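Ligand-bound model needed. magnesium ion.
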Amino acid sequence: MLNTLRKIIQAVSSAEDLQSALKLVVHQVRRAMRTDVCSIYLHFPQTDNFVLMATEGLNQSSIGQACLHSGKGLVGLVGIKAETINLKRAADHPNFHYVQETGEEAFSSFLGVPIIHHRKVLGILVVQQREERQFGTEEEAMLITLSAQLAGFIAHAEATGGGLRQDTLADEASLDVMYEGVSGSGGVAIGHVAVIAPPADLDKVPDRRCRNPEDDVEAFQAALEAVRRKIKVVSRTLARNLKNQEQELFEVYMRMLDDNALAGEVIQNIRQGQWAQGALRGVVQEHINAFEAMDDPYLRERASDIRDLGRRILAELQQTNTEVRSFEESTVLVAEEVTAAMLAEVPADKLKAIISTLGSNNSHAAILARSMGIPTVMGAVDFPYRRMEGQEVVIDGYVGRIYRNPSQDLRRQYEQAIAEEASFTKELEILRNVPAQTRDRHTIPLLVNTSLPLDVDRSIAQGAEGVGLYRTEVPFMIKEHFPSEDEQTDCYRTQLQGFSPRPVTMRTLDIGGDKNLSYFPINEDNPFLGWRGIRVTLDHPEIFLVQIRAMLKASEGLDNLRIMLPMITHINEIEESIRWIDQAFIELCEEGYKLVKPPVGVMIEVPAAVYQARHIAQRVDFVSVGSNDLTQYILAVDRDNPAVADLYHTMHPAVLTALKQVVDAAKEEQIPVSICGELAGDPAGALLLMGMGYDNLSMNAASLPKVKSVIRNFNLSQAQEMLQHALEQTGAGGVQKVIQDHLKAAGLTRLHSRYVDN
Ligand code: PEP
Ligand code: MG
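Prediction:
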């Protein structure tokens, strides 16, 4: 059964379009199960009908015609109950309804399975038999497995404009085709797509027209030659240690590189206008599909050889491609996973928006984008980015939407939104030099989260009162090796000097999770529960000490440094870290530096730290809550996974309760408590946190003026009352409603809160 299923799924995923995929499924299922009929009905939400879209065994003329309303007939019953129905004598069932045009009268038994994607019934997969036949549980199980996989395929096809339902039918010429993702950073923009692919990753190479095909053919042939040479060297070196079969593999590789095989096809595609990397991807993918569909396990395994070969050629091609890429005036950077290095590749004045097909609203790429104030959509899984190079798109970062082929109307609407946004930002500029003070005269300092040298001027221009979180990993991420002590010292000095005399809180290296260094990869099945933050640096004191020394040296004469430790889970991690900090401090003093000992604080990011907040507070000078991680750990929702983005609620009452407990613990121990997670930069979130008693809030610079504006239009007593009501709620929806009501009552309507619609 496994083999049959695998073959069907394989055939479906290499089908040209949804119609051919459905045809393939009905054909293969009918054959595999030896049934008289196999059909697929799709659900049309507008009419709430299930329409026959593919069949073998029923009248072909009824495709697109035969339909059953939800709840009507057996098909409609499967749809409304979202449950499998398996009948030996269908006609005896009270719901049986004879659909004349299909000619199904002749069939006795019926097995119908719903095709469900994200709780929605997209369609029904049905098999029928002329004679009475009780389908077995194995057969049921096979159809359920198949339809679960088919659901993802149908949903993807519809989302990317290849669906069959008229309401979503979209071709290349359709206007305003919409793709949904998750809001990464607010704001709207219009621009042209520039896809950036990570090195040597064949699957991520986009389609692109080549300017001069013969140049690309030449580059491809040079890459082939280089791979051939390397394979020969490797096979010669290994010859003595290899079994015959393994040696043969090298010969197979060499044959594949022959002009008459894979290479010939690539060259042909280049000559038709595709650039070398795109042509290589296409041909390699076709070969992989063909091998993966084979019955023989040995031959099936050869798919991975082809993939490997493809990767090697691609790496060579990328090395020889030294052309400096030019970008449009309004560029929308698109990648599967946007990295800091990619952001650095596009000139800042041209970068208007970002689309990441993976990741979610609290992935670090989104946080970086927010700090740069660039509209961003994350987790746009259905966005067909490989075919989008150079196309114009509209980005709505507030709601996480992308529109392809914008119509005049849509473009006008968004141009107006861009203009309004700019004027609102201008209006808020007058707040730059006034304090964040409530109407009832409570003042709360607003600090910024930074990561790049660029952030200094931008933050001061927004009236930042210091840095609550400097993410030191970002300068590490854009390098090709660990930065030296001197490089780090220069980098930290820029921050400390730029903000002096305001305080700068530097977090020690927080890698792992979704933050990887290309030169120090951490590959784990569960990276957010793995080796990250302080766990890595305590295991590598040589890296930790260099960083601490650089921070301390950079602070000489400025004395505005504060050091903060990420991901603290065990009390002994604090003690160990402080020992290293003391060691570095003593060494530098002995070397003659005139230093003032910086305050040392801890981030509260894991539930254990919430429960032990008082013990932590007794050992440090301050605490700061990392609500992004704390939310993911309290709610057990990966902050980086768009599939569960709907479950990630920083305003969940459980999270709010934890945030309040931390404040109370810090107050008991009389140390300052701040928050530097994204919640602090949300206008509604900031009010709640102020109500809890946080001493200061740290956020990305772009959010600061809006947060200041709401604080100045609210009372502390109102914020405390709003918090009280919020904590009485049982879910995030209730909290949002409470906030909405309070803000409305205070006349605050232009909020742009990520958490509250208004
Ligand atoms: C947090 O977890 O809330 C935080 C501020 O740290 P980061 O987002 O960098 O993990
Ligand atoms: Mg964190």
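The chain has three domains: 2-159, 175-406, 445-715.
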